[in-house]
Amino acid sequence: MARCDVCFRHCDIPEGGRGFCGARVSEGGRVRPANYGHVTSLALDPIEKKPLKRFCPGSMILSAGSWGCNLRCPFCQNHRISWSAEAMALEDRTEYLSPEALVRLAEREKRHGNIGLAFTYNEPLVGWEYVRDTAALARRAGLKNVLVTNGTAETGVLEELLPFIDAMNIDLKGFSERYYRSVLGGSLEAVKAFISRAVGACHVELTTLIVPGENDSEEEMLRLAEWIASLSDKEGRAVGRDVPLHVTRFFPRFHMTDRPATDPETVLKLADTASRRLKYVYTGNL
After folding, report:
1. Cα–Cα distance measured from residue 171 to residue 53, given in angstroms and rounded to the nearest whole number
2. Per residue in 212-267, pLDDT tens?
3. Helices 99-108 and 128-140 sit at what angle, rounded to 10 degrees?
4. Domain limits for position 138
5. Most exposed among 23, 26, 148, 237, judged by the fewest C-beta atoms under 10 Å?
6. Buried b / exposed e across 103-123, counting CB within 10 Å, b at 16+?
7. Are the CB atoms for 12 and 23 separated by under 8 Å?
């Protein structure tokens, strides 16, 4: 039995078994990422798709994803590589791409405007060692590194990555522990701790997907925005009001098809609510 220390679950994994995320395995009394180097998705994207609005606008970035996730969002748009049965079978259907090989690909894409690498699509932190190793090489090559994450990782993992990460988009999926626990299978407090440490250490933008009947009240959005506005960096400087927030529209997906897409007016109203506390609020999926 070996304990995984990546996220709040602290899975005790029997020899040969896997943790909750499906991507971390126990071998020889140690936990390792089974998805290390298993790249399932690769695309040259506009930086705005991450989404990042205030980091290198107008540029392109090579986006790479693997498989596995430590949340269970029922509306996941990338469920085929995150936590569905299909995702758990991907280990046998992907080829190994070393950190060196991925960085070489990123360098070749400079001719198409590429500025670096984005670790995205599935939850990259369940295989954070690959992110660390690749991002370190990319940094030496003069490339930028972007992390797109649900923020459900211990701050010790974040400390390993911060020396190499230039920007993050972190999901702040709502602002109630009930929603995180009962619907997403996560921990709001863990995400808040992650965001609190990341802000001020690199460029950070946040995303909140508005799901009808779950996190769509003005009261919750105001509390969320007030918390963001209260954030400070490691030196105690107030920086929260400058953190961009993306308020985005839900569409029925995967296991959550029991409700309609979010009314665009609701998204606009909640973005306006957040703007009472934050300088930079953007809407998405409208």
Report:
1. 15
2. 999 999 999 999 999 999 999 988 999 999 999 999 999 999 999 999 999 999 99
3. 50
4. 2-284
5. 237
6. bebbbebeeeebbbbbbbbbb
7. no
pTM > 0.90 = yes
Angle of CA points 98, 103, 109, to nearest 5°: 130
CA gap 165, 202 in Å, rounded:
7
Q: What angle do CA 173, 121, 53 make, to 5 degrees?
A: 65
Distance CA 237, CA 132 (A): 28
Task: Report the CATH number at residue 181.
Answer: 3.20.20.70
Neighbours of 136 (CB within 10 A): 16
Single-letter amino acid, residue 46: P
Secondary structure letter of residue 18 according to DSSP:
B
Contacts of 89 (CB under 8 A, 6+ apart): none
